């Protein structure tokens, strides 16, 4: 029995969804210079990144369980909440933000310091031993 030829009898489909975009070559050029960020926002973000952050391990009032605490953050509460969320996700644990401090469950001090340095915070130190 002879094998059947399964090659398509019609040419390949030419329905290209981007074909209609080929006539867009005469678009206006973008801006010559990049748009600078807001001056106040850039200064405050730089000041926050240079604030001295201390990372310590605490067991007080936690029934012997360890918690990593980040203190010394200066800036809006929203930024503190966002940083706390980033640190919790990076460590893969729970935690909270209370009284201007970020509390991460467990002994995550080395990982938190590493993540803060990665995020651009320059003055980060381990505290308490």
Automatic annotation (TrEMBL):
Pfam families: SUI1 (PF01253). Residues 54-120 form the SUI1 domain. PANTHER family: DENSITY-REGULATED PROTEIN, DENSITY-REGULATED PROTEIN HOMOLOG. Residues 28-47 have a biased composition (Low complexity). One of its GO terms (molecular function) is mRNA binding. Gene3D superfamilies: SUI1-like domain. This is Translation initiation factor 1. One of its GO terms (biological process) is translation reinitiation. It comes from the Bacteria. Belongs to the SUI1 family. Residues 1-49 are annotated as: Disordered. Keywords: Initiation factor, Protein biosynthesis, Translation regulation. InterPro entries: DENR/SUI1_TIF, SUI1, SUI1_arc_bac, SUI1_dom_sf.
């Amino acid at each position: 029995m002879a094998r059947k030829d399964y090659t398509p009898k019609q040419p390949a489909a030419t329905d290209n969804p981007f074909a209609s975009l080929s006539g867009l070559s005469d678009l206006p050029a973008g801006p010559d210079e990049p748009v600078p960020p807001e001056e106040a926002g850039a200064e405050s973000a730089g000041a926050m990144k240079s604030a001295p952050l201390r990372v310590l391990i605490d067991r007080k009032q936690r029934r012997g369980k360890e918690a990593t605490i980040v203190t010394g953050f200066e800036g809006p509460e929203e930024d503190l909440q966002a940083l706390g969320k980033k640190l919790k996700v990076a460590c893969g644990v729970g935690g909270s933000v209370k009284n201007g401090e970020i509390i991460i469950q467990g002994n995550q001090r080395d990982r938190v310091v590493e993540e803060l340095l990665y995020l651009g915070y320059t003055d980060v130190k381990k505290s308490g031993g």
